[in-house]
Amino acid sequence: xxxxxxxxxxxxxxxxxxxxxxxxxxxxxxxxxxxxxxxxxxxxxxxxxxxxxxxxxxxxxxxxxxxxxxxxxxxxxxxxxxxxxxxxxxxxxxxxxxxxxxxxxxxxxxxxxxxxxxxxxxxxxxxxxxxxxxxxxxxxxxxxxxxxxxxxxxxxxxxxxxxxxxxxxxxxxxxxxxxxxxxxxxxxxxxxxxxxxxxxxxxxxxxxxxxxxxxxxxxxxxxxxxxx
Length: 228
Ligand code: ATP
Description:
Keywords: Amino-acid transport, ATP-binding, Nucleotide-binding, Transport. It is built from 9 helices and 11 strands.
């Protein structure tokens, strides 16, 4: 059984349809890349999974349980942790407070977070709004991990970050993958995203138009669906 299985998903913003048939699957322990040009439906797909966008048709199953249309807090409790686009840490809480506020019982503890991102331990008592973009992203990832999610979702994992810091984020994702964490990730830098992905899904105008291994995503397909 897949950890996450989306089939035939159609979602709307009011009367305006954004998704027309998204199919996607994340197996246990897999890193899955969700790809597509701007406005093709990646964030809407994620929003549908976490309960922020109400799906009208299709199924979203988490460990076999249909979660389509469920309240966001209930879906979160079933084991979905989100690192949202733009990070959105609590600006007026310290690093420590941000982490503690998110904590739910499980294998992820402050000690383990400190080991994953030693930088955050150094910044423990700093307010989140005083952190660099990279540090805020580390905090956003850590905060999601502190909820001990079965599925970690990163929307625009490295957007706006300097190349060196981006490598820190990818290194963390690789390490999480090695530890068996299931991950769904969106990122614009294909050359960095594809090597960490076990499988990828490409959206075009709200539909899944490709799914397969990264090495099956040929230059032709990349040109057709992901070129600028
Ligand atoms: P990006 O990389 O730019 O974030 P995306 O692939 O995540 O793009 P979505 O943000 O999911 O794409 O957008 C899918 C479609 O839904 C687009 O046509 C977009 O204009 C529309 N859309 C997104 N958010 C809203 C909203 N809040 N209200 C109405 N339409 C929206």
